[in-house]
Amino acid sequence: MITIALMGAGGKMGSRLTDNLMRKPDRYRMLYVEISEAGIANLAKRGLQPTPQADALAQADAVILALPDRLIGRITQEIVPMLKSGAMVIALDPAAAYAGVIPIRDDLSYFISHPCHPPLFNDEVTEEARTDWFGGVKAKHHIVSALHHGREEDYALGDQIARDMYAPVMNNYRITVEQMAILEPALVETFAATCVTAIKQAYDRAVEMGVPPEAAWEFLSG
To answer: What is the reported pTM?
Structure first.
């Protein structure tokens, strides 16, 4: 049985992970860490109660950082010294690790995992899955992961937790933290989002020039 401390368990991302991990009571002993009133209320809706941070961290085999990127550096400075030797720190975004703001202890492992989100062209057959744009609820998607620091054998545990917390997962592609940072923000948020914006502007211009919106959309997306 693996004991997991989920930081920010009642937040936007934390609630998604909570919903998936609480379905694995035979695999994980979950300790939910949450301090906001809204987050605690979200846990209560699920029949869950938060565990005090110090208690959760002292017991954790793995701690998941479901926290805003801007807080990762400050919070990890506080919590990393509290973890037991051999524990794993799991981050959901490469930014803090790539920037070097997460303190590294040689006796801990650090695993980074990020969802690719559901493919634009997919084989989902239910409306729930087709409209699960983020993934991790009904729609299948791929994820990418990196062992930022630790023993090679630690990767297997990170892979298992990542697949379960982001489920349903098709493939988990192993890459480096630097490669993950190339994917986001460089490839997706900087380049691809710019291209999508340009496509939308071209569509709007076509409609302004008299093309019926439905015809323009179907022609563009076909």
So the answer is: 0.94
